[in-house]
Amino acid sequence: MIAERQGKGSWGKSVVEQLSKDLRLEFPGIRGFSARNIWYIREFYLNYAGHKKLQTMVAAIGWTHNVIR
C-alpha cells in the first residue's frame, strides 16, 4: 500500500516516519517498527511482489540476506 500510494504521488516520505511512530505506539515492546525497517520492507515488496514462488523463497532465505548495507 505504501509503494502504490507513493507511486501515485498521494503519499510522501513522511508517511513512513508517521507509520513507524504509530506502530510503535500501538504495539509497545515489539521491536522492528523503525522507519529504516519499514523502508526495507517496502524495498522487499517492490523486489519480490510479483514472484510466483515468494512463499517458498521467504522460507528459504533469511531477512538479512535481502538487506544490502
Descriptive notes:
The chain has 69 residues and is mainly alpha-helical. It has one domain (2-66). Helix content is 59%, strand content 0%. It contains four helices and no strands. It has helices at residues 2-8, 14-26, 35-48, 54-60. The two termini are 25 Å apart. The mean pLDDT is 76.
Could you outline the blueprint of secondary structure elements for this entry?
Layout: H1 2-8, H2 14-26, H3 35-48, H4 54-60
Brief rundown of the structure:
The protein has 69 residues and is mainly α. 59% of the residues lie in helices and 0% in strands.
Which descriptors apply to this entry?
69 residues; mainly alpha; 0% strand
Q: With helices defined by DSSP (H or I, 4 residues minimum), what is the helix count?
A: 4
Strand content: under 5%
Return the structural class.
mainly alpha
Q: How does the major sheet shape up?
A: none
What pattern of helices and strands is seen along the backbone? HHHH
Give the number of domains: 1
Number of strands: 0
**Distance linking N and C termini:** 25 Å
What is the molecular shape?
globular
Amount of helix: 55-70%
As residue ranges, the low-confidence spans are none
Mean pLDDT: 76
Radius of gyration: 13 Å
